[in-house]
Amino acid sequence: MPRLIALLVCLLAAGPLHAARASDLLVIANPAAGDVGPLSANAVAAMYLLRVTAWPNGTHVVPVNRELGSPMRTDFTAIVLKQDLTTLAAYWNEMHFKGKVPPLIQPSEAAMLAFVQKVPGAVGYIDAATAPVGVKVIGRFPNPSSRTTQP
Amino acid sequence: MIDVLKRSIPHRILASLLAIYVMTYLVTAVVVYSGARTSVIDSATSTLQQLAEVKYERLANDIEALATDVSAWSQLDVMNDLVSGDLDKRVARTLEQLKAQYALPGDLYAFDAAGALVASTRAIPLQTRQAIPVVWKDPGKGGVILLGKQADPIGGGEVLAFIIPVEGAFDKSFRIGTIVLSYPWPAIEKQLFSPETGTVLLDMREGGRVLAVDPAVLARRHHDPDSLSAGAIRHNVVVGRSTARAGIVEGWEVQSLRDTRAVTRPLRHVGIELALLGGALGIPIFFLGRWLSNRLTAPVMELTRVAREIADTDKLDARVPVTSEDELGMLARSFNRMTENLEHAANEREHFVGELEALNQSLEAKVAARTGELEAAVAAQKRLIGDISHEIKSPLARLGVALGLARLSRKNAAKHFDRMEREIDNVSALASELLTLASLEDASGFVPLGEVAINALVARIVADAHYELPGRDADVRVLEPDGQVVVHGNWDLLRRAIENVVRNALFYTGQGTPITLTLAERGAHVLIVVTDQGPGVPEEALGHLFEPFYRVDEARARKTGGSGVGLAICQRVVEAHGGTVRARNNAPTGLIVEIEIPRLAE
Asked: What is the pTM of this model?
């Protein structure tokens, strides 16, 4: 019991601290992606903008986005893609005519994680606070806007 | 009824006509009715076929639309969440929305690639870890799979299941799960069934298994769905079938059924009308037939009537009117000829019978007369014998007396002997007379005949009378014509006959009374009339004068003597000569005896 109380106290103390600290953005991939080293933001952006469609081992790349307007998406767009929404919209309009559609949407951290876990070649991003279980972390980007991620 | 027909030809003809009419009409009516029925059933079959086609089409369209819908839904972006186990319930929400939006009567299930139930419109606690039922497992052919009618392994009840494999939008080869739409079978049936016809849905791929059947149809089929399967023989129903065609429900067949009775109900009016028409036509035909049969058989009936009349009354003068020149007319003529012949024969028979009767009567009369004569003869004979006995007895008695007296007195013996002699002469004379009479009674065949001169005969008789009674020779007068009067006969007999009459007249008249003997010829006869003016005889005695021993006055006869058979002999002799003798009284007194003898016998 004293240890439980100590843990609770610790959590209550560390929570605000943790939230206040800038959380990293982890780019995760299905293990079927093969032996891929840490990728640069540009390499990840290339996959998300469908410029690269296959992993080095040939597995089809399946990029997964968070829903539009979510903080993680905003952050990812800013940190990894480094483009504003208007530019992206123009880009996808152009791609639409080529028969290509933007990446899939997974509306939550858990769904993102589960999707990447299950779909071979899938690539997604999660907050570093979430344990990247069953996935391969292929990039870690510091998130300057230290915000508490919403599940 | 049969008896009536057996007894009457008109009834038989009428019955035959009616039977022909009824048979003809029935055959016609049956042909018309069955033709109409076939046509109605054909048209109903065609209508039902169209209906079945429409229903099949609608059903197929609906199911294909559902399949398309579900297929489209499976490609929704949100279905990618199946990969992540629909943690955000987006799939579940989408399914709910789709169900509401499309007003789906069934349930939608979403399974992940591993076959675990991820989302459904049915409230199933996910903790139960519902796995995809075996029957819904996608064989991996791709595209929509329609599972036919089967039990819903999750929700229960009969359903039609659409199995749609879900592929990743990112990678068509990546299988992310399965969407199943379990569409309740009652909804299909509800759409399929219509109130006016019975509908049956069969799966021909399964040997015509009955998938759906209208409860109304089933109720009429004794709730035995097997009786509706494709292989079963169905009676009393008209069936329209949809044609087989390719598609998601390939092999299904919609059948629209209607009871034949319901289809042919309008025909009942036709049937009733046919029956009424038959009856309406039958009435004039009946009367026409009756008129015709009466007309045809009238001559026969008339013939029968006349024949019966003849049989009943024996009147053969009845005749049948000959109304035609045909066989019946010939029959009537022959009949008339026959009755004429019969009548003729009957008349002849009657005539002969009449004649026979007359003959019979005359015969009877003759027999009666003969009998009378015989009786009279017998009586006369008896009387004759009595008279003879009497006549003989009296002289014999006197002879006896004289004999006795002669013995007593020898002195007067001579007188008595005289007397006795006289009596013997009397008896002898009587016997002689009787012999003559008897010989005359028999026959005159053996009497020798010859020409007899009556003048000479009469002269001889008158001479004899003068000799016998000398005192009366002045009284007898003879009147005779000039010349010989000759007859054919026997001299001796004729002499005795005439002599007896003359002697009779002399005996019964006193002296001085004139007696006239008239001789005359009258035609072929000779007339000898002896007339006296004596006392005559009573009128009633005239008829008996010629009978033997008849005496008008017994006492007087005794005194005058005479045998009593003289006139009888006279009559026999005259009759033997073919003549007649009559007696009548003379006026004022006396007797006239007329003898009439044919001059020459044949």
From this structure: 0.56
